[in-house]
Amino acid sequence: MAEQSLQETLEIVVLGRRFRVACPRGHEQSLKEAARDLDDRLKTLRNQSELGNREQLLTMAALNLTHELRLAEARSREYADAMDSKIKTLQQTIEQALIHQAKE
């Protein structure tokens, strides 16, 4: 019995060029949306800047996306740290309440 492929091949369009890309099964819609988002970003960047060739556009878009990702990761770490601190405070409060209750 042949094992079915865990990947699909999708066709996406970025800046008018068609690409065939492998995609894990079940993630097709997400990849299509990512391709549309990238295409929209590239078109906006092209319209707002004097970048002429695709390589420059793609490089600037990659830098912008990487910067956004790093900001999101930093926010996520800050949120996780804040939640850890709140959980520790809550644990200490509960422990103190239990100790106080045990003494009564």
UniProtKB/TrEMBL annotation:
**What InterPro entries does the record tag this protein with?**
Cell_div_ZapA-like (IPR007838), Cell_div_ZapA-like_sf (IPR036192), Cell_div_ZapA_N (IPR042233)
Q: Which GO terms describe its biological process?
A: division septum assembly; FtsZ-dependent cytokinesis; septin ring assembly
State the Gene3D superfamilies in the record: 1.20.5.50, Cell division protein ZapA protomer, N-terminal domain
Subcellular location, record wording: Cytoplasm
Q: Which UniProt keywords apply?
A: Cell cycle, Cell division, Coiled coil, Cytoplasm, Septation
Record flagged with keyword Acetylation = no
Example GO CC term: the record gives: cell division site
- Its domain of life reads Bacteria
State the oligomer form and interacting partners. Homodimer. Interacts with FtsZ.
- Entry similarity comment: Belongs to the ZapA family. Type 1 subfamily.
Function per UniProt: Activator of cell division through the inhibition of FtsZ GTPase activity, therefore promoting FtsZ assembly into bundles of protofilaments necessary for the formation of the division Z ring. It is recruited early at mid-cell but it is not essential for cell division.
| Protein name in the entry | Cell division protein ZapA
Q: Which organism is it from?
A: Gallaecimonas pentaromativorans
